[in-house]
Amino acid sequence: ALLAPVCFLAARNYKAFFAAALTVALVIISSVVAFGCEVWIGFFQITTPLMVSYLEEAFLSTYQQNGISVFLFARSLGADVTTAYAVQIAIAIPIVALTWTMWRQPNREPLLRAAATGVMSILVTPYGHSYELFCLPLAGLLLAMRTSWRSVSAMALLSLSWVWPMVASFVTVKFVPLTPFVAAALAWGCWRALRESRELS
């Protein structure tokens, strides 16, 4: 959701942007009509502070064992909360700029561009969790298909993308959260493939 508005605006797809905004507004209104304002008050006063407290706990808490974010990687190296947020922001800003560039230009491979965006979304949020890694196998599969299964690097990324969701938590617990590096490798593969596609078009 963090990168979706960037994609819509960069692609000048204003209908999709306003449709998404309207959908969010309707969901909020519907929840208030069905359950009252208390659900949102509870979300901001109870749920949000609770989730932030889990996120900011000293590494490695039970909640963090399935974490996949840059923020968590920084915390695993001993960074304090402020420094970890600063590292997260420092990574997120160029990722947002890269997403903007990727969607601003016409492209012959929209599925690969969408998959790349999903992978890069892992790198922009401090709240990433292992159940969000479904985008990795899709990106790996599209890269392998694009080369007709002949590229060694694409097949390596495909294998990594399929295995990583199963081992990410184990690696986090036994070593450090390396998922941001896996996501970055797949994002780089997608970005390179998209650039080649533009050069051929």
For this entry, give a set of tags:
globular, mainly alpha, 9 helices, single chain, 201 residues
Please summarize what this structure is:
With 201 residues, the chain is mostly helical.
Describe the structure.
The chain is mainly alpha-helical and 201 residues long. Helices cover 73% and strands 0% of the residues. Helix 1 runs parallel beside helix 5 and helix 5 packs antiparallel against helix 6. The radius of gyration is 19 Å and the shape is globular. The two termini are 30 Å apart. The relative contact order is 0.12. The model has no long low-confidence stretch (mean pLDDT 93).
Q: Could you tell me how far the N terminus lies from the C terminus, measured between alpha carbons in angstroms?
A: 30 Å
Structural class: mainly alpha
Count all strands and give the number: 0
Q: Tell me about the largest β-sheet.
A: none
Oligomer: single chain
User: Any idea what the radius of gyration is?
Assistant: 19 Å
Which geometry do the CA atoms define?
globular
**Which stretches of 5+ consecutive residues score pLDDT under 50?**
none
